[in-house]
Amino acid sequence: MTLPHSYGLVLMLTILTMICWGSWATFSSSPKAGALNCSTMTTRSVVALGAALAGLTFGTWGSDGFQFLDDLSRAGTNNILCGFLGGVVFNLSNILVVGAIAVAGMG
Questions:
Q1: 3-class DSSP state for residue 5?
Q2: CA pair distance 82, 74, nearest whole angstrom
Q3: Is 80 helix (H, G, I), strand (E, B) or coil?
Q4: How far apart are CA 64 and CA 2, in angstroms?
Q5: Torsion of Cα atoms, 25 then 34 then 97 then 105, to 10°
Q6: Helix, strand, or coil here: 6?
Q7: Predicted local confidence at residue 20, as pLDDT
Q8: Alpha-carbon gap, residue 2 to 57, rounded angstroms
Q9: d(CA 96, CA 35)
Q10: Contact by Cβ (8 Å): 28, 43
Q11: pLDDT in tens, 30-89
Q12: 3-state per-residue secondary structure call for 11-77
């Protein structure tokens, strides 16, 4: 696993994450489409695939901690299930946000 070692790098990655997190809903919503439009579902698929790919590549570089697959094998079923359910709730709330943006005409 590769871990950032400086405060500046952690701060830069945090700001980049907040910019991407706040802007995707505006770009993915369309005024004439509903909350479950094709671009939103495509975005979800690409993010899930990208997270898996990043975990399998960036999660195996470096020697700062355990490897990605080692962490996955050490996690219990309850932990994986709670993480999955948390992601489901988070994504449902984001779908509702995209629908609200589309209905309000702010997209």
A1: coil
A2: 15
A3: helix
A4: 6
A5: 80
A6: coil
A7: 77
A8: 10
A9: 7
A10: yes
A11: 555 554 556 667 777 888 888 888 888 877 776 666 777 887 888 888 998 998 899 889
A12: HHHHHHHHHHHHHHHHHHCCCCCCCCCHHHHHHHHHHHHHHHHHHHHHHHCCCCCCCHHHHHHHCCH
Q: Regarding predicted confidence, which is higher, 25 or 101?
A: 101
For the question of whether the overall pTM of this predicted structure is more than 0.85, the answer is: no
102 CB-near residues (< 8 Å, 6+ apart): 29, 30, 31, 33, 34, 35, 37
pLDDT band at 7 (very low <50, low <70, confident <90, very high): very high
| Cα–Cα dist 55/68, whole Å | 6
